[in-house]
Amino acid sequence: MNQTTAKEIQTEFKERLDYDELMNCMRCGFCLPSCPTYGQTNQYEAASPRGRIALMKGVVDGLIEPDESVEKQLNLCLGCRACEPVCPSGVKYGHLLEEARDIIQQKKKHKWPFKVLRHLVFDQLFPHKERLKKVHYLLGFYQKSGIQKAVQKTGILNILPGNLADMEKILPVIPGKKEMKSRPASYKAEGISLRKVAFFTGCLMDTMFLETNNATIKLLQKAGCDVVLPQMQVCCGALHAHGGEKSAAKELAKQNIAAFESLEVDDIVLNAGGCGALLVEYDHLLKDEPEWKERAKEFSEKVKDFSEILILLNFMDQDLSLPMQIITYQDSCHLRNVMKTASAPRILMHSIEGVQFREMKEADQCCGSAGIYNLTEEKMSMQILDYKMERVKETKAHTIVTANPGCLLQMKLGIVREGLEESTRAIHLADLLLESIGTE
Q: Is pTM, for the whole model, over 0.85?
């Protein structure tokens, strides 16, 4: 990083980072035990929330140059925000991290291959649902045509770097083109209508995990919800916000607010904690835009995880049962730490007859997925995953339940890495609940 770029980054840090928020950190250390990277780096101070805040403040104060080592530590953070609930000062660490990453990414001079890749992913793919569907059509053809089996038999995938070969194995079966295009815009409640909700479909949730979205809609119907699917909704913008593309995240937020705000609904419901964590903070994302701030606040106040709605409508009083099995739960970091939803999924799982729920030790610690972290920081991600799988094995669970697509894929990857494919499965909470009411 040259001196001109470093100076520009320092200036932006001074102008854009909330100095009061930086000063709110009392350096008490309450955040240290909650931080996965701090634990996995043998308690290296710079790899903790307290340490990273000190780095940011050092840059603002002109005491530290914003070089590659600073960027490395900010990128090594999972962004799980487990530090926030335990912070006695209420420091909004996640907001500071996103702002700092955005400044660095926008000011840094990237090499052209990396620049092209970011442009394709953040600008050309995720903001455009139809393009994302086309990519999944190709992936579905790869799976269903027999090419996937042939490729796996050759072992050629083993030459791929990192854990990409194992990740290829755990991809869910991609729905067909007809399934992705033949969905109604609204669904009626089964029985008496108790609530009207709008469903946020998401990107990967409505392509790769389409069946989980369908399961969620079915559960909401059975609980007494009329469900509306706004046709103009787009990607939530979480990957952009976490990856240093804040301007793009703002534009996506505005599109979603416009798509939902004219609907007369009680709630905006979703089934992915990673998406929900940004949706409930659209008001913060757009805090500097007077035209949008209040509209964003009204939007965010309606956002709820589907498990909260099911609890509200006493879904657990239905006749829920499954064959005898031990289940455990891996919290979605953003669902727990940002959306503040931890008890609702557990109440629902406890209500299923025939299952024994065993709480996993440190279930509230990140699994190492964190969006695309398991690709960009593969070594640390796998260290965290291996540690997590030790906690899973202690429960002797047959089923690992999650509430976020990234967590689901990461736990499936952990199952493969540990050779537990014959004895253990990972499943989204919505799919488990649908199984429990005997509906295919």
A: yes
